[in-house]
Design goal:
By secondary structure, this protein is an alpha/beta fold. Strand 10 and strand 11 form a beta hairpin. It binds S-adenosylmethionine (SAM).
Length: about 350
């Protein structure tokens, strides 16, 4: 039922991003210059059918095998195709044939535009809720991305668990989605507009944290968030007092991450060398690491660098042989928007 409503909304109701009735499925913040250039090389028809709510292009993508869950008309696939380069590969999955038809129509055009001898992008028509039936081998992706899709899924927990299974050890799920500041009545999922506009299925942020931890992602990291404005009076009255946020999270597949930030006296030093992050490496909203500066980190943050594709760009100091207690300044998870009233950042579950 949910999937049929979604396919009708993205396949028939909407004919482009200008038809959206809220800014939930929109990306408002301007991208960094290199990303803006890459976006400028994407075909106009693909760009016009973009319905994402955030930027899902983490650093250091060269040569990676990437999966985009709910790729729509393929805008992010073609962005990532450029960033992964000819040695990399991008696979997009979506259930709406009309969206995939646009994505596929411009496949050769993009390969030529990007200077690739053959396209490094492929598209699969399929249900993200049934990833296990698509035949993708376990531990076969370095990076899984998704842009404004989890809120549309009926069984979100199952898809987080599948994403964990499909990631290589040290790989990450990096995705933008819509969250609510409270649990929403399930009946809202039956409204095609509230669902299609990515509001009805928005997870309450604290349920999201429990859910991803249950799927094996022990330390979810918030990268960015912004409030969503619902101005349409009809939609507003249906939603009551609930507030909505678009947020980008990164979830690493690292076995044995600890439930809290523990201090082992470790530090990292970013040496530079990542395109687009020449001066500062951003791990998450709490961790902006200047090139050349010794940066003390908790055990989990250390592993997110030492055991991932970021390791070659860092000097690593210390190990986990001596424990010094809880990492100083480690706070409990707070709801989105809390930081507006104070210095603490919300809901990363980390220091
Ligand atoms: C808000 S749009 C975002 C599309 C794309 N990520 C973008 O940024 O333009 C949501 C997309 O998720 C797809 N979708 C929703 N539920 C799905 C499911 N169960 N399986 C596959 N695709 C799904 C829809 O077809 C739609 O293209």
């Amino acid at each position: 039922m949910t999937l049929e409503l979604v396919k009708a909304y993205y396949g028939q109701t909407l004919s482009g991003s200008a038809d959206l009735r809220t800014d939930a499925c929109s990306t408002l913040e301007p991208p960094p210059a290199a990303i803006a250039d890459a976006l400028g090389r994407i075909h106009e028809e693909v760009a016009r059918h973009y319905y994402g709510c955030g930027l899902i292009a983490p650093p250091a993508l060269s040569g990676l095998r990437i999966l985009d869950l709910g790729c729509g008309a393929g805008r992010d696939c073609y962005l990532l195709s450029q960033l992964a380069g000819p040695e990399g590969e991008v696979v997009g999955i979506d259930a709406t044939p009309a969206q995939l038809a646009i994505a596929r129509r411009h496949q050769a055009w993009h390969a030529e535009r990007f200077g690739h001898s053959r396209s490094n992008v492929s598209f699969i028509e399929g249900d993200v809720g049934r990833l296990d039936q698509i035949g993708l081998p376990p531990a076969s992706f370095d990076l899984i991305v998704s842009n404004c899709v989890f809120n549309l899924l009926a069984d979100k927990a199952a898809v987080f668990a599948e994403a964990h299974r499909l990631l290589k050890p040290g790989g990450e799920l990096y995705f933008a989605d819509v969250y609510a500041d409270r649990r929403l009545p399930p009946r809202l999922m039956e409204d095609p507009v509230l669902l299609g506009e990515c509001l009805a299925g928005a997870l309450y942020w604290n349920d999201f944290l429990s859910l991803v931890r249950g799927a094996g992602f022990a330390d979810p990291r918030l990268v960015s968030d912004r409030p969503i404005a619902v101005r349409d009076p009809v939609l507003k009255s249906q939603l009551g007092e609930a507030r909505f946020f678009s947020a980008t999270y990164r979830l690493f597949r690292l076995e044995g991450l600890e439930p809290a930030c523990e201090d082992y006296g470790q530090a990292v030093r970013y040496r530079g060398g990542i395109a687009g992050a020449e001066e500062v490496f951003v791990l998450d909203a709490h961790h902006r690491m200047d090139r050349g500066r010794i940066f003390p980190v908790c055990g989990n943050s250390f592993r997110m660098i030492a055991e991932t594709r970021f390791a070659p760009f860092f000097d690593l100091h210390g190990d986990m042989s001596t424990h010094f207690g809880i990492f100083p300044g480690c706070g409990t998870a707070l709801p989105f928007g809390t930081f507006e009233a104070g210095p603490e950042r919300p809901a990363s579950g980390c220091c």
